[in-house]
Specification:
hydrolase activity, EC 3.6.-.-, 8-stranded mixed sheet, single chain, hydrolase, UDP-X_N, 205 residues, 28% strand, NUDIX_hydrolase_dom, 5 helices
Length: 205
């Protein structure tokens, strides 16, 4: 569940970011800047991350604050799901990453699968959209929507990438230790459920 202090820090950050973007009065701008500094201080106090790093990662954006988008490719072979082992934490995840400007969600799924697993895939259809706050992820400074896109292998072979150390296929009852920052067991099991019927409705939190 979302930690209250983290929820408040995100809300303060979003309000201050919007205020800095749209306010014209110099005194309002000063107050919104103070709010942004307060959100950074909350994150710093509860995470022990240096203020400069928090400012860069958490409070450095401009414009209206919106959720980030994380794209995950869902690839099956013989009823087993494709996963890659992340070098960062040594745990397993569906291929994927942040959405890139200029690329569609399907294009991101195809690109990330190739880079992280070596497989060439064709994006088929959207399986679901998850709000990261509704699942058992570690605390994060961002509000994130996760897109799960079914893909079909059309070529290539299992090959590790710059960010991955192993590639494998796993059944629903033999999942490896998961990189819960990227995907939870509940989400992965939803993928098995989503392909159990070609007419199953796309899920959306």
């Amino acid at each position: 569940m979302q930690l209250k202090w983290l929820e408040w820090a995100k809300q303060i950050q979003a309000i201050s970011q919007a205020g800095l973007e749209y306010s014209k009065d110099m005194y309002d701008i000063e107050r919104f800047q103070q709010l942004r500094e307060l959100s950074v201080e909350i994150m710093h106090q509860y995470t022990d991350v240096e203020v400069e790093k928090v400012q860069k990662l958490f409070a450095n954006e401009t414009g209206y604050a919106t959720p980030k988008v994380d794209i995950r490719a869902v690839v099956f072979q013989n009823d087993n799901i494709l996963m890659v082992r992340e070098k960062q934490d040594g745990a397993w995840a569906l291929p994927g990453g942040w959405g890139d400007i200029g690329l569609s969600p399907k294009q991101i799924a195809v690109k990330e699968t190739k880079e992280e697993s070596g497989f060439d895939v064709e994006a088929v259809r959207l399986l679901g959209v998850a709000d990261k706050n509704f699942y058992d992820h570690p605390p994060s400074p961002w509000h994130v929507y996760k897109f799960f896109i079914l893909c079909r292998i059309v070529g290539g072979e299992a090959t590790i990438g710059d960010e991955t150390s192993e590639v494998g296929f796993f059944g629903a009852h033999e999942l490896p230790p998961l990189s819960v920052e990227r995907n939870t067991k509940e989400q992965v099991l939803k993928m098995f459920e989503s392909i159990s019927s070609p007419h199953k409705t796309v899920f959306c939190d």
